[in-house]
From TrEMBL:
PROSITE patterns, per the entry: ALPHA_CA_2
SMART domains documented for this protein: Carb_anhydrase
Upper classification of the organism: Eukaryota, Viridiplantae, Chlorophyta, core chlorophytes, Trebouxiophyceae
One Pfam family it belongs to: Carb_anhydrase
Presence of keyword Lyase: yes
Keywords: Lyase, Metal-binding, Signal, Zinc
Keyword Manganese: no
Record's protein name: carbonic anhydrase
Family named by the database record: Belongs to the alpha-carbonic anhydrase family.
EC number per UniProt: 4.2.1.1
Annotated catalysed reactions: hydrogencarbonate + H(+) = CO2 + H2O
Length: 354
C-alpha cells in the first residue's frame, strides 16, 4: 500500500503528470509518461471550467498537494529492495509473513476491541485510476455506515497494545482509496496469494491523521470470477495502461461500488503495526489483514498483472508464486520485511470464524 497520513497514498505522485482533457470525453488520461521528467501540461482555463469533480479527483491525486514530504519516485525493478530512507532503516516495515491462525505466537484481540465492519460505498464521481503499477479506485463520495475503528488509551489504534479490559472508544474512519497488488504483499505461512486488495482508511486523533489499512488476499485456486472486480474491470482500458502507463477513467455518477462485496464474509483478521509498502515507507500504519481470502479468476489476475509496470521485476526473480511465473507476469508487491519482534494479533468473531 502506499500513502501516508502526511501524504496521500499514491505510488508515484512525483512522476510526470500530463493531463489530456477533451470536454465531453469520458476518458481522462492523467499522467505519467514513463521516464519523463517534469512535463506537467497546463490545463487551459476554459477546459478547467469543464472539469468534473471526478476528473479533478484524478488530477489531484497525480500531483503533489504541496503539503507533507515529497514522495520519491520509485519502481518495482528490485521489488523495493533499492528503496531508501525508512524503507531501508525502519524497524516496523510492511509487508510481513503472517502465520496460520492456530499459531501459538498470535495474541488475541478481545471481542470488545474488534473493528466494527459496517458498509462502505464509493458513489458519484468515482474514478478508477490505473497508474503504471497499480489499479486504484478513488472517489469524491465515499460513504460509510457503522464502520468503526477501536481506539484504546487515547491513541492506541486497534487497541493492539491494550489489556482485554481497557476502555475503548470507537471512531469512524474515512476512506482514502482502494487499490491492488499482484502478487499479494503479505504472505500466509510463507505462501503468496495471487493478489491483495488494500482499502486505505484514516482516522484523525488529536489533529493527527493515522492510517488503518485493510488487506484482503485474492486467491485464484478455484478460478472463480470476483464480481466486485468485474465491476471495476469494465472501466479499465488495458491497452492504454500498457502504452501510456496511467489512465484515469471517470465512472458514471450512478455507479456505486460496495466495498463490502469485496471483503470476505468472515471478518476475522490479523492486526499489527507496520508501514506503507511504498516509499517513503512511513511507519505507524495499523494493518488489518483478513485471515480468509476472497476468490478471483486467473483471467482477472492476468488483468492485474498486465497493469504492472514495465520496470517491475519478472516473477521468476522475486517470488515463489508459481502461477505468476507461469503467466510471465510482472509484479507490484514489495518484498517481505522482518518482523523484528513485533506482535501479531488475531481478531476473531467466533469459534468458527478463523
Ligand atoms: Zn497497497
Amino acid at each position: 500500500m502506499m500513502t501516508g497520513a502526511q501524504k496521500m497514498p499514491r505510488d508515484g505522485w512525483t512522476r510526470t503528470q500530463a493531463v489530456l482533457l477533451s470536454a465531453g470525453f469520458l476518458l481522462l488520461l492523467c499522467g505519467s509518461v514513463r521516464g519523463g521528467s517534469d512535463g506537467n501540461l497546463q490545463v487551459p482555463a476554459a477546459v478547467q471550467a469543464n472539469i468534473t469533480s471526478g476528473e479533478d479527483l484524478c488530477k489531484e491525486t497525480t500531483q503533489s498537494k504541496g503539503n507533507g514530504p515529497a514522495i520519491p519516485a520509485f519502481n518495482y525493478a528490485s521489488s523495493g529492495d533499492d528503496w531508501t530512507g525508512d524503507c531501508q532503516t525502519g524497524k516496523q516495515q510492511s509487508p510481513i509473513d503472517l502465520p496460520t491462525t492456530d499459531n501459538s505466537t498470535l495474541g488475541s484481540i478481545p471481542s470488545s476491541h474488534l473493528v466494527r465492519f459496517g458498509t462502505i460505498t464509493a458513489s458519484g464521481n468515482a474514478v478508477l485510476r490505473l497508474e503504471i503499477d497499480e489499479v486504484e479506485l478513488l472517489s469524491s463520495n465515499w460513504s460509510t455506515a457503522n464502520f468503526q475503528i477501536p481506539v484504546c488509551g487515547g491513541d492506541n489504534i486497534g487497541c493492539l497494545e491494550s489489556p482485554p479490559d481497557a476502555p475503548v472508544e470507537y471512531m469512524s474512519a474515512s476512506i482514502v482509496n482502494l487499490h491492488f497488488h499482484a502478487n499479494s504483499e503479505h504472505t500466509r505461512n510463507g505462501n503468496y496469494y495471487g493478489a491483495e486488495a488494500h482499502l486505505v482508511t484514516k482516522i484523525t486523533l488529536n489533529g493527527k491523521k493515522n492510517l488503518v489499512v485493510f488487506g484482503t488476499w485474492m486467491d485464484v485456486s478455484s478460478n472463480k470470477t470476483n464480481e466486485f472486480f468485474s465491476g471495476l474491470q469494465s472501466y479499465i482500458n488495458d491497452t492504454s495502461v500498457i502504452s501510456v502507463g496511467s489512465v484515469c477513467s471517470p465512472v458514471p455518477e450512478n455507479v456505486k461500488f460496495s466495498i463490502d462485496n469485496l471483503l470476505p464474509a468472515t471478518k476475522t483478521y490479523y492486526a499489527y503495526r507496520g508501514s506503507l509498502t511504498t516509499p517513503p515507507c512511513t511507519e505507524g500504519v495499523t494493518w488489518i489483514v483478513f485471515t480468509k481470502p476472497v476468490q478471483m479468476s486467473i483471467t482477472q489476475l492476468k488483468a492485474l498483472y498486465k497493469s504492472n509496470a514495465y520496470t517491475s521485476q519478472p516473477c521468476a526473480n522475486v517470488t515463489t508464486n508459481a502461477l505468476c511465473n507461469i503467466l510471465g507476469a510482472r509484479t507490484n508487491n514489495r518484498l517481505l520485511q522482518p518482523l523484528n519482534g513485533r506482535t501479531i494479533k488475531l481478531g476473531s468473531y467466533g469459534p468458527d470464524s478463523n
